[in-house]
Structure formats: C-alpha cells, structure tokens
Design brief:
Helix content: 55-70%
Radius of gyration: 19 Å
Order of helices and strands: HHHHHHH
Number of helices: 7
Distance between the termini: 51 Å
Strand content: under 5%
Structural class: mainly alpha
Largest sheet: none
Low-confidence stretches: 258-264
Number of domains: 1
C-alpha cells in the first residue's frame, strides 16, 4: 500500500503547502518581490535541468523527483503572475458595458503574457523530457495546464466562489472580469470530463501486475487530477476553502503588507 499512500500524501502536502507559501510571499512588501522572483527563477533553472537529467530515470525516486521538478516549473509562473511580473498588456478594470466577445478579448489581454509564458514553459518541459522513459514531468505539467485553463474559463463564465482574497492589491482589477453565478454550463462538462480521466488513471494505477514505476506515476497523476477536480468544486460549493490557506494570507494583514511598502 505504500506505493499508493506515499504519493497521495506527498501530492496533497505539496499542493497545500506550496500554495500557502506562494500566497505568503505574495503578501510581503513589494520591495521583496524582486528577491522572490530571483529565487524562483533560480529554482526554475534547476528544475528544467532536473527534468532533462531524469528523463530516462525509471526508478520510483525518479518519479518523485520529476514530479517535484514539474511543480517547481509551475510554481515559477504562479509567482510571476501573482507578483505582477508576467500578466498581460491590459492592467485596468473591465468596462461596465463590455459584453460577449469584447469582454472575452479584454479578459485575454489581462493574461496574455502569462498565457505565453505557460506555453513556453510547457514547450520547454516537453522538449527536455521528450523521448525519455520517464514521462512524469510532461504528464504533471499537462494536467496542471489543462485544469488551470478549465478553472479560468469557469471563473470567467461565472461561479459562486471567486476567491478574490487570493488576489493581491495590484491585481484587484482582475475581479471586474470575473462573474458571480451559482454555476455555468461549462462546469458540468469540466467536472464530468476530468472525473472520467481521473477514474481511468486510478483504474490503471490499481491494475494487477502494474509495475512499481507505473503505479507511482499514475498515483501521482490521479492524485493531482483529483485535487484539481476538488478545486473546481470549491468554485461552486458553499465551502470555506480559503480556510485551508489562512496561514498563507497572514502576511497581508501585516502593516507592511502588500501595497503599503514600496521601498526598492
């Protein structure tokens, strides 16, 4: 059972802890952002090197390390976005009269550089790991990318919980592009489709005679997909999901928190 329980626990812990750390760093004074971004960029470089080195590592430890490297690559773009370094050319609220495709186009402009960065990072991960015997990094990044795009679209079309408190002051204009509704027509499609994929992952992970490497890889993938589905449900259910990362938001309560100290 350790081949399943350990990857599950590791995925849940890293998902919870890394999110809290990023939120905490984002709530620190603005003058710290360049140091956070510098450290994140250093870790990004190490992660990309690690993905290439581990591309043919079919040991169980190779799955853990490749999974961690892919998460570090993903963390870089999360930090770059929330700190305001990589967002989009539009940094103003949505006009009140914007509707339909106009609103969608304006919303895309707020994220355009961020989306390009995601594509570039995804291409780098694929290039560095392609053809190897260890596809963990590619699969991990693919799950994160697909489920994040789904979450963005659902927030744009409208959900109950927008989690505005996660946005720092310098990104508050993004709230005007969100829509608060009990649910939207895309949500059931997103959840049903991703649940079916997660089911296939878990079914394969638990199959008879599956190797230790494949079982670990598929357990990581299934766990990550399951957490992404849970995050989707957080968007529509009346649950206090923000309480999970209240400790990460404490830095914003500081008198020297985000948007107060601009010292460089």
């Amino acid at each position: 059972m350790a081949r399943y329980t350990l990857p599950i626990l590791y995925t849940v812990f890293v998902w919870w802890f890394s999110t809290g750390v990023i939120l905490y760093l984002n709530g620190l004074p603005r003058w710290t952002y360049k140091w956070t971004m510098g450290a994140a960029s250093g870790l990004l470089a190490l992660a990309l090197v690690g993905i290439h080195v581990l591309r043919d590592d079919t040991r169980i430890s190779g799955v853990y390390l490749s999974f961690t490297c892919a998460l570090m690559v993903w963390a870089w773009q999360e930090i770059a976005f929330l700190l305001g370094f990589v967002t989009g050319p539009r940094r103003t609220p949505c006009p009140a009269d914007a509707r339909g495709w106009q609103r969608a186009g304006l919303a895309l402009q707020t994220l355009l550089h961020h989306e390009f960065a995601l594509l570039a990072l995804g291409a780098a991960v694929i290039t560095l790991a392609w053809g190897g015997s260890n596809p963990t990094a590619i699969l991990t990044f693919a799950i994160l990318w697909v489920m994040r795009q789904s979450a963005k679209l659902n927030v744009f079309f409208g959900v109950r919980n927008l989690n505005e408190s996660f946005l720092p002051n310098h990104l508050r204009y993004l709230e005007s592009y969100f829509r608060r509704r009990p649910m939207n027509s895309l949500f059931p499609v997103s959840v049903i489709g991703s649940t079916w994929i997660a089911w296939l992952m878990w079914e394969s992970a638990l199959a008879d005679r599956v190797s230790g490497f494949d079982a670990t890889l598929l357990t990581f993938a299934g766990s990550l997909m399951t957490l992404a589905i849970l995050e989707h449900w957080f968007l529509v259910l009346p649950l206090p999901s923000e309480a999970l990362w209240r400790w990460g938001l404490r830095s914003r309560a500081s008198p020297a928190g985000d948007g107060v100290s601009e010292r460089s």
